[in-house]
Amino acid sequence: MWYSSLIIFLFSLISIIAFPESESRTAYNKEYQHIDVRGNKTQNFVHLQCKANIKLNGVSYEADENVFLDFTIRNYGEEVIRVFPTLGKNETYQLVITDEDDNVIPLKEKVKIDKVENFLHSVRYNTYPSNKKKKNKKKVKLKRMTENMVGDYVKELIIHQGESFIRRLNLKDTYELKPNNKYYIIGYFYPNFVENKSVFIKTENRLVFSIKERKDERKLQQAKKINSVAFKGIQPEEVVHLFLSAEIQKNWGNYNKYINFPEYILGYDQYAVEYSKSSPHIKEMIIEEFKHYLAESRAGKLIYYKIIAAETISPTLAKVKVNVERQLNKMPSRYEYQYILKKDNPEDSLWKISNLVVRVKR
Question: Both 206 and 71 in a single domain?
Answer without folding.
Answer: yes
